[in-house]
Write the structure tokens for this entry.
Amino acid sequence: MKFGIAAMALATALIAVGATDASAQRGNWRDHTAPRSQERLDVVARERFRLDQSALTIRIGERAGRLEALQLTFDGRRIFVRNVVVRFRRGRDQVFRIDQQMRRGDRTALLRLESRRRNGRFVESVTVETEARRGRREVEITVLADRAGDRRDRRRHADNRDHRDDRSDRGRRDDRRDPPRRVETRPPVAPPPAVTPRRREETRRREETRRPAPTPPPAAAPRAAGNPFGPGWFVIGTVTPPRSGFGDGRIDIPPSIGIVKQLGVFVQRHDVRFLGFNINHTDGDQSQLPIQGTFRAGTSSRPETLAKQVPIQNLTFRFHTVGPGRGLAEVQIWARR
């Protein structure tokens, strides 16, 4: 009788140990076939800008390699993002329309770049088109990218690892096998909260309570008819941008004009977008003015003061016409001595 009870206890213990080993083996097999982590984005550029300009350009360059997708994050003051213009190495632009208010911690959706061979493209710069605001408020923009080369390397490494695990599965499973590799996972990025009418109304009330009382603007000097800047200003040149694609404009300054202290741009007939404004002096030096972004028809830029008081040889800039319609835009360059 005692011998029978002992035999039954021994058989029960052996069955429990076998079940434990089998479950442990099945657990290891599941660990090896667990889903891989999602692709990670790398930081390729980060810059801080003042919000008194309508175009914020971040230089990327070839050091970042070939990129397949971009994502922008924002930190600092709120900013209304109208468009994101991605400029490739050969001068071609890809425009993403955003039209969204970005606050601290917000980010854009994943911006997929055009690529015929699906192997990424070299990005020269990323320009955020916004609305200029007065004051000294600043915003920090970080550019995250999905690199094409890193993705191929990760896929090749994962394929080699899976092949090695399959070969080891054909042999005997025991405790001497290497433990399953731990893959760093990253939780998916939650989309920004939906802007409901109630949330928009609460935000408007909160901003009105924090906004200081408006101060009356200073009395402006009387301006002559057709003069957008005021007394003392005169036109030094008029150019016409192309209807499609970006073009290069140039205005030669005669020596009789002398030293110019301030410059400004006045746009007529159609909207015009500027990507750069260079000043070439007679002594060989070159400087730039922060005249960038889209200017609507009938509007002008701010009067920009030149840092160097040297006669100007010529002005060069890159621009093109924006919006539908017939006819060409007209850009007037105004100066003040």
User: Anything to note?
Assistant: Confidence is low (pLDDT under 50) at residues 19-38, 216-225.
